[in-house]
Amino acid sequence: xxxxxxxxxxxxxxxxxxxxxxxxxxxxxxxxxxxxxxxxxxxxxxxxxxxxxxxxxxxxxxxxxxxxxxxxxxxxxxxxxxxxxxxxxxxxxxxxxxxxxxxxxxxxxxxxxxxxxxxxxxxxxxxxxxxxxxxxxxxxxxxxxxxxxxxxxxxxxxxxxxxxxxxxxxxxxxxxxxxxxxxxxxxxxxxxxxxxxxxxxxx
Amino acid sequence: xxxxxxxxxxxxxxxxxxxxxxxxxxxxxxxxxxxxxxxxxxxxxxxxxxxxxxxxxxxxxxxxxxxxxxxxxxxxxxxxxxxxxxxxxxxxxxxxxxxxxxxxxxxxxxxxxxxxxxxxxxxxxxxxxxxxxxxxxxxxxxxxxxxxxxxxxxxxxxxxxxxxxxxxxxxxxxxxxxxxxxxxxxxxxxx
Amino acid sequence: xxxxxxxxxxxxxxxxxxxxxxxxxxxxxxxxxxxxxxxxxxxxxxxxxxxxxxxxxxxxxxxxxxxxxxxxxxxxxxxxxxxxxxxxxxxxxxxxxxxxxxxxxxxxxxxxxxxxxxxxxxxxxxxxxxxxxxxxxxxxxxxxxxxxxxxxxxxxxxxxxxxxxxxxxxxxxxxxxxxxxx
Lengths: 203, 191, 182
Prior knowledge:
The complex is a heterotrimer. Chain A is mostly helical. In chain A, about 65% of the residues lie in helices and about 5% in strands. Chain A is built from 9 helices and 2 strands; from the N terminus they run H-H-H-H-H-H-H-E-E-H-H. By secondary structure, chain B is an all-alpha fold. Chain B has helices at about 1-15, 25-30, 35-65, 75-95, 95-105, 115-125, 130-160, 170-185. The chains are: A mainly alpha, B mainly alpha, C alpha+beta.
């Protein structure tokens, strides 16, 4: 459990993809307008990252250096296309909402980065742990931002149609900026500063 | 003609790639510390975006759609982009070693720039004509370069300012982007 | 010796080709699996939009890009898709006709206009203006028509108006022609 747990935990905090490594920012900022989106995107990233890490870890001894990157790219692109098609068929609302950022998972630095930096050099169990840890770290970051943006920007807390509650003041007068693009930048900047200030994450 | 103007202005100002669409953020925070490198990066990305748009438009309309294999788009587009960047990298290495060195790791990273794959996907989804795609790519790239240049100018000044410790580097850059974004929101009602 | 060397050198390419082949197979398989559902979704969407626009609709027929709406055997209208050229790209509009000169209603199916401004073309305050309008009157008020543009979103408003009018005139010609042809 030791090594597995360690790799998993790394992805959560020390190597948190969003707040520490600043990877994969494009989807995080664009998607985080609702918690539904956040969860949907996490699912997509989980499937692709896990799949890619596993496959690449499995074939790592056979892949010659020269064709390494193109092969990784094809594997990741295939996984992303599969997820794209499945979401289109099974989760149409999510598909519409995520829009262009679903196919863009292919160039999400997190995925290619982990494949290159980790899965191609580590055995399969560690690679799985890494994928899970990174995804959870990603999910946490995404949920924090989406939660804040949804609550502050629309005043209600609803997930997949299940209505939890409305905040009285905010429902009438939502702070619209948080739903708009600049609001995303604002939140992530403040959160990063907060993380640094409280020493949770280093430079 | 006015259709192209609308596409162009839309891409540069109103639906700016970085500030509104969130495409092309990685280099935005990595490279934008000096105006010179920011503009070079912007030009390089615009170039790749435009050539990639042309190549993928042709592939989409003459191969993918007629043969009903549109689902191959993601795989093919990214391979085209990767190849393109590789070719450009070799070309720059041979002709201008200084430039190659200056770009460093950011040149191959253009492959994973959301803006490049993004514009190819946007062209396909919107169904732009051949010229329309080129206009869109140029506009998108210009908008990207514009914001990158502005950002780097501001950051150059910020380096000298007395920023609170936890804000230094990325956090303050994000706050700056917020303000830039708010300013650009004003373009929304332009036309 | 020769063969072994060749194999060693060619291996990267062989592997890459193999990977691409596997990828194409996997994708084609997934596409075949999901295509049915994706097409079915479009059907359901279309039907629900049409019945919202024509509450008395009992069925519809689709031919030559025109929907003919029936209510128990009577033709009660037509519908078709118009595409406007807005800021954020194409604006898909479902246009309903009561008859060959009057609009029933319009529904904005999809658009990517500026949030808070251009996106208001989807609001009833804008689309209601089209109900009952004569096709010839589908123009912005500033151009002599009956539709008020949304403030600061002239491009979005004009895109919708132009697309609706032009496509409506086109489709009416087709409808008339097919009626004459029997």
